[in-house]
Design goal:
The structure is a single chain. By secondary structure, the protein is α/β, with parallel strands linked by helices. The chain has one domain: Aldolase class I (TIM Barrel, Alpha-Beta Barrel). It contains eleven helices and eight strands. The chain has an eight-stranded parallel beta barrel with strand order 1-2-3-4-5-6-7-8, surrounded by six helices. Helix 2 links the parallel strand 1 and strand 2. 40% of the residues are buried.
């Protein structure tokens, strides 16, 4: 994935309840960021016009609705994204659910959500899972890629192991990104498995999903520039090792 433009490496999370506010952010970031995430909150507030506005300005969209239902319903939901110029869509689920999504994806790229970045080992234990978060991410990723998914959503902590274990070309999208060298001192909100953009890209992520660190910044454009600089430096480090 070396040919991804720098202004597409950040997928800005449009986590807003007002479609007009989302459009304002798209226009503010226009050119600096060319990839945007539409999740449940914004999609329910603005539906297709929000997505049409983003792609109409020449940008890419990740529809992060995490489809999880019986296979027939998931397949039909994926079909609804056809001809909308959506780049990525996310799904959860077992083998039949994944197969149904892949069967109907056409030009859409399907990303399997592995383990939410709001989960850690204590959550795993509370749900009755044995093993580590990394074990579960690796197992789910192997299965998703083998069944035809184009990539996975995982934290930066698992990205390096995924790159080493899965010998195929696939996309890794990493949420839970927080800026700054002193990341351990940052208020983590609802994210637990976090990393900087530099760490994520260096570990093997292709894209990083970032919302609040930009949307709550006093100078969002400067924050974007700083994060893109981190990403560029991480890509140079990786290139020098190869």
């Amino acid at each position: 994935m070396h040919d991804i433009p720098l202004n597409e490496r950040i997928i800005f999370a449009l986590d807003f309840s007002e479609p007009e506010k989302a459009r304002e952010w798209v226009e503010m970031l226009d050119g600096k960021i060319k990839f945007f995430k539409v999740g449940l909150q914004l999609f329910l507030a603005g539906w297709w016009p929000v997505i049409d506005h983003i792609v109409g300005r020449g940008n890419k969209v990740m529809v992060d609705l995490k489809f999880f239902d019986i296979p027939e319903t998931v397949g039909l939901a994926v079909q609804q994204l056809a001809n909308r110029n959506v780049t990525f869509a996310t799904i959860h689920g077992n083998d039949p659910i994944i197969r149904a999504a892949v069967r109907h994806k056409n030009d859409l790229k399907i990303l399997a959500v592995t383990v939410l970045t709001s989960f850690d080992e204590s959550d795993m234990a509370g749900m009755g899972f044995t093993g580590t978060v990394e074990d579960l991410v690796l197992m789910r990723s192997h299965k998703a890629i083998a069944l035809g998914c184009d990539g996975v959503v995982s934290s930066a902590r698992e990205a390096g192991k995924l790159r080493g274990d899965i010998r195929r070309n696939f996309v890794i999208v990493t949420p839970g990104i927080r800026p700054g060298a002193n990341i351990d001192t940052i208020q983590h909100d609802d994210q637990k498995r976090i990393a900087t953009a530099r760490e994520a890209i260096r570990n093997g992520a292709d894209y990083v999903v970032i919302g609040r660190p930009i949307s709550t910044s006093r100078d969002p454009l400067a924050t974007v520039a700083d994060i893109q600089r981190e990403i560029g430096e991480a890509l140079e480090e990786k290139a020098s090792r190869n």
